[in-house]
Design brief:
The complex is a heterodimer of chains A (about 160) and B (about 190). Chain A folds into 2 domains: about 5-50, no CATH class; about 75-155, no CATH class. Chain A has 7 helices and no strands. Chain A has helices spanning about 5-15, 25-30, 35-50, 60-70, 80-105, 120-125, 125-155. Chain B is mainly alpha-helical. Chain B has a single domain (about 15-115, about 125-190), classed as RNA polymerase sigma factor, region 2, helix turn helix motif (Rna Polymerase Sigma Factor, Chain: A, Orthogonal Bundle). Chain B has 8 helices and no strands. Chain B has helices at about 10-30, 30-55, 55-75, 85-115, 130-135, 140-150, 160-165, 170-190. The chains are: A mainly alpha (about 160), B mainly alpha (about 190). The interface between A and B is large, with 56 and 59 residues.
């Protein structure tokens, strides 16, 4: 390994991060290469400086925060995120179904009346079609559910 | 030669997680004292994180305050998939980014208004980084800076840094690598290391 490869691993090792490669080879290289030893010393010095450069938050910050936090009686705050998080995905999936039916009608799909509850004989007579439609709807519902949850998560994290 | 510099304290971290989980449960029930205890437990971490990202002590206070208030409002949505600290740091990072965006807009407006005028703008004391190391961090790209700021809190594992930064572990490792290398170069130029 050359110095460039060694230094890439050195940075991870010195930071306590998981590093690929052979740790012993890195250490062996360090015993013979003054330049890489200097590089490691610089990284360590930097880490020590940064770790030591910490400030302590004053009591004022706590007071400022708590002054803005509503009293317990006003909890739980806005309800809409909670509603969105639980009922939102389900409603989105349900809302999609009429839209699909409408789209199918618009396109003149003659098999559509068989979707009606009074026409289960159609589905019993066409198991592959029934399975395909069921899987398709399940996939659409799962995708909508997943996307809604992703959206809700992104809202939750700021 | 021992290479590892960063020392993890798994026992302390587990204790802190247990404490946070209990406090979060109480705070969700409307207990303001429990939330105040959470603020006290994490105020230094959030403030240091914000300070390293935005580079200004006063702005960091504002960012930290906003982050805690937002965390309180969103507490009900915290599911415990990550630790409370990781979740809180993610909120603080978002708040810091909002601040940096508004700063850039203000800077652009200021430059437009003063275009063609003689003289160099006098740096506002409030906008001046409070410390040379923090100033160096401002010269590192924002993504790398966020990863470094989380890393130098020395409380989080790589996985937690990745969760808070909103990226994969491999990506964050690459950001840390490049960020530390850039920071080392800058510190060397200024004679700090």
């Amino acid at each position: 390994m050359n110095c460039r490869q060694i230094r890439a691993q050195l940075a991870d090792h010195s930071a306590g991060l998981p590093a690929g490669g052979d740790r012993e080879r890195v250490e062996a290289h360090l015993t013979t290469c003054a330049s890489c030893r200097e590089h490691l010393d610089e990284l360590r010095a930097l880490d020590r400086l940064m770790a030591g450069d910490r400030v302590t938050a004053s009591e004022t910050l706590v007071t400022r925060v708590m002054d803005c936090v509503p009293p317990a009686a006003e909890w739980p705050g806005p309800v809409w995120p909670y509603v969105l998080d639980t009922a939102g995905p389900l409603l989105a999936a349900l809302a999609l179904l009429p839209a699909l039916l409408w789209l199918a009608l618009q396109r003149g799909m003659t098999w559509l009346p068989a979707l009606h509850p009074l026409g289960p004989a159609y589905w019993l007579g066409h198991p592959p079609a029934a399975a395909a439609v069921t899987l398709g709807l399940a996939a659409i519902a799962a995708t909508v559910l997943w996307l809604s949850k992703q959206w809700a998560e992104s809202l939750a994290s700021g | 030669m021992v290479l590892a510099l960063r020392i993890a304290h798994p026992t302390c971290r587990t204790d802190a997680r247990g404490r946070d989980a209990a406090l979060v449960a109480r705070a969700r029930g409307g207990d303001r004292h429990a939330f105040e205890a959470l603020v006290r437990a994490h105020k230094d971490g959030v403030l240091n994180l914000a300070r390293r990202i935005v580079g200004d002590a006063d702005a960091a206070q504002d960012v930290a305050q906003e982050a805690f208030i937002k965390a309180y409002r969103e507490l009900r949505r915290f599911r415990g998939r990550s630790t409370f600290a990781t979740w809180l740091y993610r909120i603080a990072i978002n708040e810091a980014r909002v601040y940096l965006r508004s700063q850039r807009r203000r800077q652009a407006q200021w430059e437009q208004q003063t275009a063609g005028q003689a003289g160099h703008p006098a740096a506002n004391e409030r906008d001046r980084p409070s410390h040379l190391l923090v100033e160096l961090l401002q010269e590192v790209p924002e993504k790398h800076r966020v990863a470094l700021a989380l890393f130098y809190l020395q409380e989080l594992s790589l996985r937690e840094v990745a969760q808070a930064a909103g990226a994969s572990e491999a990506t964050v490792k690459s950001w840390l690598h490049r960020g530390r290398e850039r920071l080392r170069e800058l510190a060397k130029e200024r004679g700090l290391v």
